[in-house]
């Protein structure tokens, strides 16, 4: 089974992590009971120990945080007879990571600058903030048009250097924001999908994650989207630039994860 954390506007990364962990615990402990009840069968329907996690952008960050949160949960819940099983593999794509001491502007920088530079854009973003979170898109594939409120918001966050403050809260950021410090040898095998042409999150973030995992001897692989923009794994392939071979690293990562999860003997 694939566990795919997502992310949308106005959700702090800490809240996203809590939701992802709660969903994963439900998957591990209750999903089969629910399926058995709904299907009137007593036997479990899924081998919940065979799962991998995948996600892109802030979802990629959540994917990397999930094993950390599972590890911490198990340490806190030592009295439980059964521990939550780690994903057998993780496939993050173009995640964002913060190194110690790095600080963005506070979230107020968005209103201060966008309201002045693009008043109509600011009005659209305000409506976005109070609207539905994950079901309001009128388009059914990425990338969204540049004048979409979500794109105005994200691009403006980057322009005014306050994007991380929307994810982690205003600075100073909590220690948990630098998840690179919390990896360990228990971390699942990882296949990183790196966007070489990313103009939103520098591709170096992906390589920093890989290097941090290697320090703990975690099995790592990297699939590079040559000249790929941020979000390339979510784009409709029909919208890829002519000659772009972005499917190759995506397919390699999926096949690798399937081999670790579905095809594994144990």
UniProtKB/TrEMBL annotation:
InterPro entries in UniProt: AB_hydrolase_fold (IPR029058)
UniProt cross-references to Gene3D superfamilies, sorted A to Z: alpha/beta hydrolase
Alphabetical list of SUPFAM superfamilies matching this protein: alpha/beta-Hydrolases (SSF53474)
Protein name: Peptidase S9 prolyl oligopeptidase catalytic domain-containing protein
Species in which this protein is naturally found: Microbotryum lychnidis-dioicae (strain p1A1 Lamole / MvSl-1064) (Anther smut fungus)
